[in-house]
Amino acid sequence: MKNLMILACTAVIAVTAFGNDTTRLKSPSTGIVQKDDDGPAITLPQGFKSVVVTSGLGKARHLTVAANGDVFVKLEKLKDNKGIIRLHDTNGDGKADETSGFGNYVGTGIVIKNGYLYASSNSDVYRYKIDEKTGAVDIASEEKIVTGLVDKSQHNSKSLALDNNGNIYVNIGAPSNCCQVQDRVKGSPGQDPCPILEKAGGIWQFKADKTNQSYEQGVRYATGLRNVVGLDWNTEVNDLYVMQHGRDMLYQFFPQLFNQKEGAENPAEEMFRVKKGADCGWPYCYWDIDKNQQLQNPEYGGDRQKADRCADKTKSIVQFPGHLAPNALLFYTGDQFPAKYKNGAFIAFHGSWNRAPEPQAGFFVVFVPFKDGMPNGKWEVFADGFSGFQQGGSTGKAKYRPCGLAQGPDGSLYVSDDNNGTIWKVSYGK
Amino acid sequence: MKRTMLIVLVLFIATAFAFQQKQQQPARLKAAMARGKTVYENACLACHQPDGSGVPNMNPPLIKTKWVLGDKKALTRIVLKGLQGGEIEIDGDKFHNPMPPQESVLNDQEIADVLTYVRNSFGNKASMVTAAEVKALRAKLK
């Protein structure tokens, strides 16, 4: 009996250790290294190749591809006084031959849907008529459809997604780490209730075709989301999915609860499948990657054991190691990639900073297999090598930082980097 | 030959003297740097990073910027009172995260030490900040 107990204990420990290990950050993928004109390029799984569409755009945030293959990139810093860049490939080699631009505002979000190009500043959403057969944008048709959203610098990206029912979803990030009375000041308590949630810290739904909407005309579709930069409407199951950037400073503010390594791994970066009215828990709750559950934040009395008020919050469906910064989410609907990628999720991780003094991590694109709108297997690194780091390195020294994802009409995957402003086109086979 | 010897001797004495000067004057600096490093690691490193390079678009670098090397009072004020975010601009780039005010977290000596550390690390070289200077500014800003 005693032997059996020991065996059982060992098994439990082994499973726990292994279970934790699967959520830990793996070493870079064993993908294939390619070369491009700028030297060593990104690594990709066997059978995939990439071409650099263009580089030097600067802060290239999100991007979208028209039916004719023209790529539209939203910039967070104007380039030649333009905030939206159009890239046109005339000879079909994947590289941009003609570059033009319009829109004199900075921002992150950009999506094409039903003959319109939608783009966001850090407080408003605009749209333009686009002829997808030619990629021509009617700049004079500019309409401001949403205005006056919270922009207090921190977490001010307004990312966009559209459903098939004429609605647009806009992330309004909380200008805060964990809704403390004094943001990011050690020892300052959490505000309860958190007043920020009235106008930020969630996803708002607006009509895609009405002008000058603001909070009064919109619907707070989901709340309790600290900051979402990557979101996508999954057309297979007709639901919104979002990637939350988890809170910072657990080790720095609560060293009695989190050691340096645990502070680097916690909290999880989380993917939520969001139904209307969902409350995903921020700022009261976080996902503890070691305990593998949603727990109360220490600013709200959490001790790494208590779930309490988090019990009835919406739970995430995929968890990733802490601080990797998911900046784009894309459900792949193309036919070009092998079958396992169909309807699965690609996520671009911008790369961490709040892991220091532990090594920084992220700076890659991962893939999560899906079935019927739910994850169906472990996440894996798809594209890597963006940072150029051999072993750790400062965030500011990363060569590229993945920020946006888009699918081309031929099923190719486009990746943007907002450090240098490089755009890759990733395709499979031949 | 004699002349060469003399030159060598003079050079040697001059070097030794300079070395001694350097030794004496920075004893205070050295102590402040050591204390300041500890403060930096506890209060600043997470955002400004181990090498002071900051985080693009989020937390400004502390390497040879006018804020770090310039007016001590302006720099001390930022540490005491913090910033909203978006107020620092370097080469056309803005930094989105707020600087949390440290007046309730760090005392005068700690702020003086960490600023001395920052002003003399990461390739920076600038004068020390004293606890008296921090104290005076803290009182003025009350």
CATH architectural category of chain B? Orthogonal Bundle
Measured by DSSP, the beta-strand proportion of chain A falls in 35-45%
The whole-angstrom Rg of chain A is 21 Å
- Rg of chain B is 19 Å
Q: In CATH terms, what is the fold-level topology of chain B?
A: Cytochrome Bc1 Complex, Chain D, domain 2
- Oligomer category: heterodimer
What count of helical segments of chain B does DSSP give?
Answer: 7
Q: How many domains make up the 3D coordinates of chain A?
A: 1
Distance between the first and last residues' Cα of chain B: 68 Å
Give the mean pLDDT of chain B: 89
- Helical coverage of chain A, percent range: under 10%
User: Roughly what is the average pLDDT of chain A, rounded to an integer?
Assistant: 92
Shape of chain B: elongated
Residue fraction in strands of chain B: under 5%
Could you give me the name of the CATH homologous superfamily of chain A?
TolB, C-terminal domain
Report the CATH C-level class of chain B. Answer: Mainly Alpha
Under the CATH scheme, the architecture of chain A is 6 Propeller
Level-1 CATH class name of chain A: Mainly Beta
Tell me roughly what share of residues is in helical segments of chain B. Answer: 55-70%
